[in-house]
Amino acid sequence: MRDTPAKLAVVTGASTGIGLELARECAKHKFDLVVAANEPQIDSAADELRREGVKVETVKADLASLAGVDKLYEKLGGRPVDALLANAGRGLGKAFLDQDFADIRCVIDTNVTGTVYLVHKVGNEMRRHGQGRILIVGSIAGFMPGSYQAVYNGTKAFLDSFSYALREELKHTDITVTCLMPGPTETEFFRRAGMLDTKVGSEEKDDPAQVAKNGFAAMMAGEGGVVSGWQNKLQAAAAHVLPAAALARRHTKEAAPGTAKKKARK
Ligand SMILES: NC(=O)c1ccc[n+]([C@@H]2O[C@H](COP(=O)([O-])OP(=O)(O)OC[C@H]3O[C@@H](n4cnc5c(N)ncnc54)[C@H](OP(=O)(O)O)[C@@H]3O)[C@@H](O)[C@H]2O)c1
Question: Within its chain, how far is the Cα of 78 from the centroid?
């Protein structure tokens, strides 16, 4: 009997948070995995994912750099990628003029340049093989001007838009493109973005496992996009009708330093 090779999924930013949960979904659905992140924690994540009985390879690379994306791509060695889950990303709080430009650049390079470069490389490979699924992790942040997180929201507006545009271009192929647009989710994101003293950073947030489950299901169903959670769906709907200035004002209340409640809600 001929062995059929397992399906292969590539998940970026799979060491923690939504990416780790997306990788878990892939493993549960018997995808072999190539998982990537910048820090050594990706190795312990991989050990855990292997318990699902799938093959897991790791790549430690800075996906903000083209060289880092090349390193990940080379690890694939020309194998067909059945699913690319482009999740790696980072935020950055505080007023724009108070941010360090190196940090600003890192957010843009990780969220936009690295993601687009990886999707371009793997997308072309999928076109050669005639099929594939792409999940891009955007955000509902992409629908609103993000005062005190201005660059981050801009990168997510880019990704949300890019994802739907690419999907349209590929609609006559067997490659699907899906955008996962989470709302505030309980991960390392807000600590890393220096936003623990903000309302959004300190209040109760969505479960990353549920967010990933919704994203994975949407990707497998070949849907265009999914906003995870009904409260976020409401926010997204409101963002489509409210004026940009009102959205920016509302974002200040969520993301400006010092807006954290005295005690985080249980
Ligand atoms: N949490 C939220 O509220 C929320 C809401 C909407 C959308 N999102 C999006 O969801 C995605 C995942 O974020 P998360 O919330 O799960 O945060 P997280 O727990 O901080 O996870 C981020 C992941 O991305 C990786 N990463 C970041 N920069 C990288 C780089 N330059 N090179 C390689 N890997 C890098 C991190 O690995 P290293 O530690 O190794 O760098 C980590 O695995 C992001 O795209 C984020 O924008 C999050």
Answer: 24
